Amino acid sequence: MNLTEIVSTGNDSTIPPLTNAYRGPTYFKLTCIISQILGVLMSVTCLWAITAFYKYGKRKGRWNRSNKEQFTSMMLANITPCAMILRLINSQIVIVIGFVSEVDEGGNFACEIATDNGIFLYTLSILPTYLYFWSRQRILYRQQLVSDLNTIFVKLFSYAAILFGIIGGFGAAVSLIIPNNYQISEFFCMSTLTKPFDQTPLYVTGFILVVAQIWIFCLFLYPLRALQSINKTSQVVTSGLNYYLKNQLKRATVVASLSMAMCASTDLLATVLVASIIPMTTPTCISMTIYDFSLMVNLYSLMLSHMECKKSVLR
Predict the structure, then answer these.
(1) Structure confidence by residue, pLDDT tens digits, 218-260
(2) Three-class DSSP labels, 80-92
(3) How many Å is the maximal CA-CA distance in the chain?
(4) Residues near 143 by Cβ (< 8 Å), separated by ≥ 6?
(5) Which of 84, 95, 232, 287 could form a disulfide with 274 if both were Cys (CB 3.0 to 4.6 A apart)?
(6) What stretches of 178-235 show up as alpha helix (H) in DSSP?
């Protein structure tokens, strides 16, 4: 079996052990360099997002600890790009290891540790995003116009959603970290070719993420339907102020719902690409870059959820 055949087989469990360093197509080296450049650009974007969130919070008085809900939302909004920077730095380390490490057991160990650390940091990066959206829906249900919807069932449904995401997400991440699944090649880290790569944890992780996202998404849809059913002439919105508040609340709910849908779509797409489409011989840096892009979309979705996102990102 030559190198061309190996690349074309993708996730083929019949691939025999390699006696020499695997080179792969020459363009793989170029893709690693491109991934490194994209990682630097995404890191700069995260630094800009941290500055934008901080300025937005200062301008709107959101850093006042007397309002715990707003303070918590701003903290989660700032923690998200901070955690993403750690993930992006780790992605750069994986690329550097591929270029500088010797093709031996030490190189394999370095690839395994760095890649496993990247999986953990991905989970750590995505968690603040969903905690943020979860806190937003909790704030939503405390508004007077929809407070009647905040029943015991809704509260239990809400807490179950976030617990499922946290416990399930970290559990799936641990199942991906434990196996010895990565090795060094001539100039990049990659999946181990000497044994079948178990895709089950990837599918489980994707399933848990999507279910948790749909769960939280439904918590936004429920009050949105209630707000749409409120008639302009109803007793609840007889005053102009209440009518204005209703429209503002509806707008915030719609934006948060769309943001959640965007997050769920990109996370699912990234999981499908890495688990089912990208060949096993592809450098690890490429799959990590795909997940990094999904995190960037999540960050953008989080920024969209702010009512005055346009002002917060332009000033």
Answers:
(1) 887 777 776 666 544 454 444 544 555 566 666 767 777 777 7
(2) HHHHHHHHHHHHH
(3) 79
(4) 245, 249
(5) 287
(6) 200-229
